[in-house]
Prior knowledge:
By secondary structure, the chain is α/β, with parallel strands linked by helices. The chain contains 18 helices and 17 strands. The strands form four sheets. A seven-stranded parallel β-sheet has the order 7-10-11-12-13-14-17. The N and C termini lie far apart (about 60 Å).
Amino acid sequence: MGFDCLLVSTNQVVTPFPVYPLGVAHLLGALEEAGFQASHYDLLANGGLADLGAVLRDRDFGLIGLSIRNLDTVDSTAPEAFMDGVIETVDFIRQYSQAPLVLGGPAFSIMPETIMELLKADYGVVGEGEKMLPWLAAELAAGRTPAQKILKSKPSETVWPKVVYDQKIADHYLGWGGMLNIQTKRGCPYRCSYCSYPVLEGKAYRFRDPEEVAAEVLRVGAKYGAKAIFFTDSVFNDVQGHYLEVAEALVRAGNKTPWCGYFRPQNLTAEALALMKRAGLSAMELGTDACCNTTLAGLQKDFTFEDVVRVNDLAVSLDVPCAHFVIFGGPDETRDTIAEGLANIEKLNNTVVFAFTGIRVLPGTAMHQRAIDDGVMPAEQSLLEPFFYFSPHLEQQELDQTIREAWRGRLDRIYPAAEMQERVTRLHSKGYVGPLWDKIIKRSH
């Protein structure tokens, strides 16, 4: 068609390790299947804005897409907003090209109108772009300019085009732990009060064919050199059992590449874990989120801490290293629940625990309304900049000191969360691959 597309990844987050921009890889496949030339520029991997200028000088593009993954660090101990950097990127692009600028990515989809106005873009795609972006490219290539500027995809319209990784970009991320990312499903049926997954991907799972997933795992190892895989599903262990079908497909395919994913600490059996381990499961990241039943209920987690301990003990018995991610200071947190939570965490043997304090409030989530109802945040509060919910029953400084003192000297209990980047980076620099929770656990003993 003679209509070239450039997709630019703006993400600068590297905690706990740099993550390949998988969403753009899906979009590249969709654009290529629709007959368009499409290329990828990643600010982290390709040399920042300076080298982007050379790309824009050398070629004329009919469409430039900007993927905005994160609004900020979502860490109250190291708050950093990223939109100023995105503004700088847009201004830089406009020095070289007047091609239609199309916004997308998770951060954009959370606040599309606000970010469109801020960046003065031509179009924006909310949600999945595998259908919308090729359609928009076709319209622009034909000389038509759609009147609707913010295009919203429907979760039910999921397509799974071929996934196109850029080898140079992949090499950058493989240099930090040897991992690439794959998605086996989209959507999330759970109602965690702070989470934007249901807003972004819908409230029902939409599954990818297990045989295709297994083939993709083998392909990214053989073609791109991935030494480990991270499954980026909102929750890997869905109640429908699709994750077991994926594991069975990996076993049939003879997979030897280790993999990890996000797990819900509930409804896991020894048989399921044993199957996944045969399929290559090397570690689990558990969305535990709170440390006692009171605060779990405050986050609408719909499981108990007894469930958490049961899953952790099961993983330990099968020698599957785990990392738990927890948040202190959320709804209904008090001095008593902090003490109870810290005591509960000690029941999690042979595991790594990462702690955060405060909850980043995002529009469209239950936490947004809870923050207003609790008088923690005015209804008119802008959420473009990071704003964190802290229980009105707590003093933030006291909370911070309590956790620091409780975990002082512990290698397997990490707070503030920024410390995990230093430890993981140090291990990756020595040639270790994967999420490394087993290495941190061993060093703590």
